[in-house]
Queue: 2 jobs
Job 1
Amino acid sequence: MKVDNSLPLEYSTEENSLKILGFWIFLGAEIMLFATLFATYFTMVHRTGSGPTGAEIFEIAPVLMETILLLTSSFTIGLGIHAMRIGNKKATMVFFLITLLLGAGFLSFEVSEFIHYVHVGATLQTSGFTAILLTTLGTHGLHVTFGFFWGLFILLQIKKRGLTPETANKSFIFSLYWHFLDVVWIFIFSFIYLKGMM
Amino acid sequence: MDFFKQFAVPHPSFLIYASMVGIGLTMLAIVVGITYFKKWGYLWKEWLTTVDHKRIGIMYLLSALLMLFRGGVDAIMMRAQLALPDNTLLDSEHYNEVFTTHGVVMILFMAMPFIMFFFNFLVPLQIGARDVAFPRLNAISFWLFFMGMGLFNLSFIIGGSPDAGWTSYFPLAGNEFSTSVGTNYYMIAIQIAGLGTLMTGINFMTTILKMRAPGMSLMKMPMFTWSAFIANVIIVFAFPVLTVALAMGTMDRLFGTNFFTTANGGMDMMWANLFWVWGHPEVYILILPAFGLYSEIISTFARRNLYGYKSMVASMVLISLLSFFVWAHHFFTMGQGPVSNSIFSITTMAIAVPTGVKMFNWLFTLWKGKIVFTTPMLYSVLFIPLFTLGGVTGVMLAMSAADYQYHNTMFLVAHFHNVIIPGVVYAMLAGLTYYWPKMFGFMLNEKIGKWTVWLLSIGFVLAFIPMYITGLDGQARRMYTYSESTGFGPLNMVAFFGAGLMAVGFVLLVYNIYYSTRYASRDISNDPWDARSLEWATHTPVPEYNFAITPKVNSTQAFWDSKKNGHELFPGKLEKIHMPNNSGLPFIMGCAFFGFGFAMVFSMWPIAIISLIGLLACLAYRSFEKDHGRYISVEEIEETEAKLRGAKK
Ligand code: HEM
Ligand SMILES: [Cu+2]
């Protein structure tokens, strides 16, 4: 495999730059996926049937916590990539680890939020609104869960193999994924929670 | 015993039992045959684990041909049922299942793999690449498609087929009205195949953007590659919508959510919208590559450059954009306002403009050409008037006020078959005949080929033109029978006869493959049609590395230039070639998906969870795996090249 040292490690082979482009295109598809969910959400938001409305079940405190945790994790993964660029393996690993812990924190808040919804009688089966609400949040949550394990595996690979063109490429792609989830969350936060609570 | 009851077919009939036995025996014969000839190892090493785009393409092709016959049998059954008034060959429930599976199989498991075959087999060759960008992902795409197809076909013998039409509108497709597991199959099998398609889209967009031979700027790409590129862009943007819609439909059926119910805030029109936001672009995913193939074939056999290259590209881009803004023409009569109807009416008609541009470009290419009437050319020439007829009736349907007359009648059925058969199916068969020598090293028989074209075309006209008339007279779509007094009888009999002729045509195609395999000359050149683009510049059959030396391109038809104007296509010398290794993982993942899908259909959660874990384990394994492929050495290449040259004198 030819390594081009004039480029950052994650772009340094032809295969690597192919993968990064492929991943951007994948993110395009992901945008469509979430856009479809949002579009459905907006059309169904008032179709609450005999169930509760958003304003009745949303709670600001846990949502704020989730937001803070996820936004911070997007920042730390950025630091991790920066550390990777300057070739500091240890710092890369530390920032990855922090990112994953923040992600796990986000997930634990989200799980308790879901439990709360079930508790107050807003389950998947309650109404059109709750179904699309929980599906949209759940899709994002599943993405984060998947990302957690994916990131964990990459972390283990960096530990074992060091910063090679391959691990750097994976880390970079993972960071794109993670930032993307953050952007989606900002939309969820503004248009589902804030708008719903107003 | 209760556990096994769920696997029984809900409305068994003699026909179903007979086909079950038939399918069982065929499967048995295949397994026994492979064991007898000791081919399991070969099958595994050379095919199931392959990452070679050409072989993956050929597997798509086999699936497509198989499904063409499955869907074709459904079609004949429907036409036979409708041939006479008050016929009782099929009962209403069976008829529902037949038109549903016919539609799904034809669109998603016949036409789609057919275009996937062309993407896979042709695109890398046309752009002078060694492979696609992600060979292993490509194998995963294929296996997901294949397993989705398998799962869908299983519905016929285990648990019951879907019966709510290929559009699967809710609430008809909900648990209340579709009581068998059929619609579960629909939701899950299409989901699995659709994920594979989405990955193909990503793969080929990357391939075309990044892996073109030196000198091939975007505006020098062969027309088929352009069409493939645009189709893949549409795939990437349209398929996620289907993913979401199917997931919601699945949840409604399995978990009792209220997305598409008519109670508790559910919204049945939401399904119709989501389905067609995907579904309309989907038909352009099928037709654009077909247009690309026609462009290649027409310019080869008119012996001229394609007329209006730039306008061909521009019109495809425009069509792809417009295709996302017309979906609501599928429910003009379902209660949206006149404003919305008018807007969608206009956007729909607007698509006729770029399509017309393409038509004229083909006509102008033919105009001063020295036309050679080979079989592929015959398909292409017949395509032009037939497709135009379908286009005109499409514009008729797009007039929203008039649509109240034709909506859900046979007129509509005639229209879309009129665009999809001459448009897509003819292109696929033309392309199949055209590229057959490149794949297998011999040509299909021209005489049988031409018989096939004429039989199909006469059959087509007889089968579908009568439907326009009965449709205008009010024969409804999806109606399993009609009474004598309607007067639909004679025309439906004609249509049955036409469908029979088409069936003979398809059988002739198979016979041609058999006949040519046995008798056709193996002594053909690499370029038997005297063609113009890069795929013809390499050996026949194509070696695994495609091109020994990466070609250098100077125009839209570099190969033609190298033949006529002395352009040097392969400058430079041999170097070792990097190739990916085979892998069993894609196939195994496909199997895990199959298990997962099957378990979901029947709500067998433990098995579903186990399969899902298996799937994730495969992904985890892949993440840790180190596989840098292998190199083909210069000596090996020289040897292969010498052998391939030797084969051609
Ligand atoms: C080869 C000859 C074919 C014949 C004789 C035929 C016949 C029919 C008939 C009679 C129906 C309507 C049944 C009804 O509404 O009661 C139908 C529906 C349909 N056909 Fe075909 N067909 C053929 C090929 C194809 C092909 C090649 C495709 C697509 C690639 C296709 C796609 C469909 C679809 C999507 C439907 C609608 C199914 C539904 O209503 O859910 N057909 N076909
Ligand atoms: Cu449409």
Job 2
Amino acid sequence: MTTRQLVLPARRPSRTPRGKRALRRNLIGWSFLAPAIALIGVFTITPFGQAILLSFQSWDGVSPDTPWVGFDNYAFVASDPIFWASMRNVVFFGVVGFIVGNGVALGMALAVNSVTRGKTFFRTVFYLPGVLSVVVVGLLFSFILAPGSGVLNRLLGLVGLDGQNWLGDPAVALPVVAAVFVWFHWGFGFLLFLAGLQDVPKELYEAAELDGANRWERFRYITWPQLAPVTSIVSLLTLLAALQIFGTVQVLTNGGPGNHTMVPTLAIYNEAFVNWRYGSAAAMSVIFGGALVLLSVLQLAITRRRSRV
Amino acid sequence: MSGKTSIHKLGLYGLLGVAALIALFPLLWMLSGSLQSLTELLANDSFLPADPQWHNYVTAWVQGDLGVYLRNSVLYTGSAVVGILLVSSLAGYALARLDFAGKGVFTFIILAVMIIPAPAMFLAQYKLLISLNLTNNPVGYVLILITSGIPMSTLIMRSFFVGQPAALEEAATLDGAGPLRVFWSVILPLARPGLAAVAVIQGLGAWNEYLMALVLFDDNSLMPVQRGLTAFSSAETPQQQILLAATTISIVPVVIFYLMAQRHIVKGIGAGAIK
């Protein structure tokens, strides 16, 4: 019988009689991991390092020469108003996605969970927008929100309200694009919340009802704490999806009017593939990607500490 | 008491009905608009097509080259899903059932890689694929799709393998089967629910991928459908109703797939995200 080994690889004695069996076991284990390691190594870790390297170089996207320019790209990005406008806008998307998106998702999950009929129907319908592609959503809403022939203005007209140039007016374009994001994405959080609600033990509610707890108290003291792990993972995933928004915006407004709906991923894309400045695009992606990584690590640390208490 | 409950219920169904309408209305309008004539659509005074223009779909299919794009998407998505299932079930099995040194290191790498967002990498991935001569090339695109699906899928598969009984594995080993044989003939068939969940989630993701497709393909005959749709809408400026017919055609496969496979979605994202 083999005993379970908890020794670190470096300290493992490799040539002892038992070492041979351990070596074989390690070889088998790592050969199962080999395809994953090869792909992640080549297509994720290498480009990740390359991105950082590229941010200190100048590259036109074609030539093999990438001269070293130090912090020039970062200085350029630091004074680029479009990039910083995009960062401000994406914080807005993040906040709206986080508060409105998660609020709608949780509210609808609670509602669907408490009805007896039509559960499957509502679950199917609410997640349906989420399977569409960013391109379809962008094209579809660019028609729906169009000032002249758009169906939204017509619907508003039917109830006696004035139409708007939803995507062309700098004052409303950003909230409107955020609303499209919420329409597209809240189904994901809804599904996870609903699954979480179905895992809450029924006995808890029965006991609380015997104790005379009202609807709000049952939510506050049973549902909410039981949903905590789902809430934190849904929050993180919604936030990351909102912050990385790209295709919807590119197709819907292409960042306009002006740069009022510009987002970082689109700014990076434009800097590289429209302005042909790959070096400063790489600097942008390092700054923005670094911020996202920090956010994820922070969120995971908070979640872990909370679940330990 | 019962009066109050039924009012509450009525309100609840009212709320759900409104939400369902908001979720469905844009799609229903897309369907309706795709069957109208341009004059009718621009006049914007009917919600239903007065005289359904079915030929809009033929025009969209032909003008938009949708046959080519859909075939490409099926091909790319299919290969990506098969690749992801193979690679991540191998890795997930090792993490769940095999005992070897350095397992923790790999788990850490997977978690770290999951945190790296696409905007931090897509430029450098593009540069890498240029140097490998893999732009405008299905192989490069599919490899990127597979790689980005591995971390989450590995964790999902791991959580399915952890719950499997060890008895069968031991019996097969005593019968003289090697580790790969045990994995392929004993473990994998039992993991079917996990494989289905991974296939559904990664299939939807690969089908709808856009950023890398945008960066990698400028040859129309190789584009997947999302990329093809933007090429169609921007380069040839088709009429609105034709574009609506094209978007409707493009979502048919994914909506049918979703309706058939939806129960696996909940299981999969639940297992991947929370456990």
